[in-house]
Design goal:
single chain, 226 residues, alpha+beta, 60s Ribosomal Protein L30, Chain: A, 4-stranded mixed beta sheet, 5 helices, 4 strands, 37% helix
Length: 226
Amino acid sequence: MKALTIMLLLGTLAGVSGCATSSRQAAANSPPTVLDAYKPPGYSTYASIRLAVHAQGLSTNQAEALGQFASQWQADQGGVITLRAPDGTANAAAAFRTAEGARALLIQRGVPEDQIVITGYDAGSGADPNLLITYTHYKLDIPACGKIWTSIGNTMSNEPNLNFGCAVQGNMYAQVADPADLDHPHPSAPGDTGRRLTILDLYRKGQVSSSAKDDKATGTLSNAVQ
């Protein structure tokens, strides 16, 4: 009887310990707050377009498609645009003219010259190699809310509803102009060296270094209500 009692106690303790371990694991895997549960995953991806090689350079349709590609690059705030022309083919001269035409059109559509790189690739035995144009950009997957609903009245688990916080996070991330800002900051612009030297020169001379006061910028509070 005594041995049976000890076995029952050990079994109960093991069950309680297992429940406690499961609870600790669930707490460790769950997000700290409701808002943390709906952080959209950000990742780097690329956009691409393929242009057939023509002896006369870009065709009208290709110029229109490449113009739309440049507009999308600006909207995505993409990285360096890489033009990969086929090497070692019979129409290498045509590939060069197509690549140069594409580069000129991209510059015309507002892409800086230092954001365009032309390289080559081994086309192999391909019968109709293309000009490959790509750029990378950062993207967010906005959470889709309202797909799963649980009973709001059933709160025995003391956990928030699955959709709480989803719309707030989704709306906030949808307003981000450049998703790459969430991954890394933009480089700082160079400081105004001329202005800095002017201020330091005035400081060394013991003169006032602040801007002159603008009398038109002063004002008084209205005394209409007494």
